[in-house]
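Narrative of accomplishments. A recurring question from our advisory board has been how the design workflow behaves on a single, concrete structure rather than in aggregate. To address it, we present the structure tokens for one chain from the evaluation set, followed by the sequence designed for it. No filtering or post-editing was applied between the two.
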């Protein structure tokens, strides 16, 4: 027996040594060529634009803080982590970073001290950025007039031993692309417009970080359209479900036009739908509304090339049966009664809403999503459209958490998911209860 345990211990040591060797084996073997002059205004301006496209503000700025000084808490399955200071401060920011160290962090997930970054930093997506774009970003963050902040970086709230960083190096080698070998190929796409959209979506925009389902190790299942699950939804971010961006006609963008997508990115709304939840509202406010028209249309054109997923859990077929019943005063379920009392004034009894003001419920991808988390969260806590330059009105929907029980929330959610031509699964009382708990936790923080 003693020999058996000694053998197990020896085997464990071998496995650990092999894992550590694998973790610390170099993955970044070439330095990015050239240097960045401090007075190259065109390069700095290009970097500023790329920082907007990459939405660096959303994660590296916190409410009430200075731009890019970090400290924004991010909930992960392991515990809370905090974004880092990326101002040009020499002690707490990136003021001493060389171009190569900046590149290692941005595209390889390796900090200046050699430790691995948490993949909340979307370096698997940024691996697709070109050397020229990395130089531009470096020029902006080092020489673009960002105010240095001496705010020290916040430690994680992840308990030991989960807080050990070395396993992240193994994760990085298994699931992140090698940025030394990944080169974005625009010739793989039918034209320059779609290629530009693919580059922005897959790289700077890192849309897959939220809109692509994750695997067993919390890795994105695929990083581009070569995988059928790319941008098919599947993640709940801060209590909001990231929707399907593929060509599904019910819970995706199959019935949206290119202009619908552009309008949503620029103004957080279009004629029939609207952004709900803070994560995507931040994307519109801090990033997409500032992009050039050509780039927004390129993004939209690329998204429209993505076919529907093979499995389509919901469907939509225009049907006025529900609307006619409500207009005739026939409320034959508790869900119907709640809808008439609380929803119809804005969304109308035909569920068509009002263009650019109150979203359509009939055929709405958020309503038809396989995961009803966003719909339930919306009923409970409400939401406000962000104020953007092109659409400054911060229209909102009130929450009904104090008025409706979990059972009633489930009933009205099921009513809109199964009426007006919508065909999606019913919502359970337990799902409503879970969303209420999540909302309370969010409000507590």
């Amino acid at each position: 027996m003693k020999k058996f345990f000694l053998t197990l211990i020896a085997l464990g040591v071998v496995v650990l040594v092999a894992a550590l060797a694998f973790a610390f084996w170099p993955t970044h073997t070439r330095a990015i060529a050239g240097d960045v002059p401090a007075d190259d205004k065109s390069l700095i301006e290009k970097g500023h634009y790329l920082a907007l496209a990459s939405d660096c503000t959303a994660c590296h700025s916190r409410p009430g803080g200075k731009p890019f000084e970090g400290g924004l808490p991010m909930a992960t399955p392991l515990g809370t982590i905090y974004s880092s200071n990326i101002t040009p401060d020499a002690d707490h920011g990136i003021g001493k970073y060389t171009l190569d160290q900046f590149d290692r962090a941005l595209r390889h997930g390796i900090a200046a001290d050699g430790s691995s970054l948490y993949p909340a930093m979307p370096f698997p997506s940024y691996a697709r950025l070109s050397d020229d774009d990395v130089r531009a970003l470096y020029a902006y963050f080092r020489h673009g007039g960002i105010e240095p902040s001496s705010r020290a970086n916040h430690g994680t709230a992840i308990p030991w031993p989960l807080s050990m960083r070395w396993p992240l190096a193994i994760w990085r080698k298994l699931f992140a692309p090698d940025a030394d070998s990944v080169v974005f190929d625009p010739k793989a796409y039918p034209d320059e417009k779609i290629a530009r959209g693919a580059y922005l979506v897959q790289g700077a925009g890192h849309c897959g970080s939220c809109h692509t389902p994750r695997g067993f190790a919390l890795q994105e299942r695929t990083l581009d359209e070569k995988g059928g699950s790319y941008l098919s939804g599947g993640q709940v971010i801060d209590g909001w479900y990231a929707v399907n961006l593929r060509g599904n006609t019910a819970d995706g963008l199959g019935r949206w036009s290119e202009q619908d997508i552009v309008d949503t990115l620029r103004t957080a709304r279009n004629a029939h739908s609207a952004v709900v939840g803070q994560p995507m509202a931040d994307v519109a406010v801090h990033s997409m509304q500032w992009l050039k028209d050509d780039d927004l249309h390129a993004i939209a054109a690329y998204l429209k090339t993505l076919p529907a997923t093979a499995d389509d859990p919901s469907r939509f077929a225009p049907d006025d049966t529900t609307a006619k019943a409500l207009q005739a005063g026939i409320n034959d379920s508790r869900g119907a009664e709640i809808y008439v009392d609380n929803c119809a004034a804005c969304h109308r009894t035909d569920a068509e809403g009002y263009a650019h003001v109150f979203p359509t419920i009939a055929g709405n991808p958020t309503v038809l999503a396989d995961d009803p988390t966003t719909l339930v969260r919306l009923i409970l806590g409400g939401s406000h459209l962000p104020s953007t330059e092109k659409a400054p009105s911060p229209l909102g929907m009130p929450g009904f958490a104090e008025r409706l029980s979990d059972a009633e929330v489930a009933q009205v959610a099921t009513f809109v998911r199964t009426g007006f031509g919508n065909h999606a699964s019913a919502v359970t009382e337990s799902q409503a209860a879970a969303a209420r708990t999540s909302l309370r936790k969010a409000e507590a923080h």
